[in-house]
Amino acid sequence: MQFTSFAEFIAMDGHGFYVWLSYGFSVVIFALIIVFSISRHKTTIKQIKNRYKREERLKQAALAQEQDKR
What we know:
Blueprint: H1 6-11, H2 16-69
């Protein structure tokens, strides 16, 4: 399919509204997927760091309690 002008390309023989709407909708959905994925990744990394810190504190408390028993 060839178009003779840019305006004709945008109009796409009367189907331009639906074509460009679907492209726009797809771009928005992909952008949201990327944003939510990055956000979730940061949250997961933060949870892992907090869990690691908590485990280290528990180990230190267990060691201190062990030394107090001696």
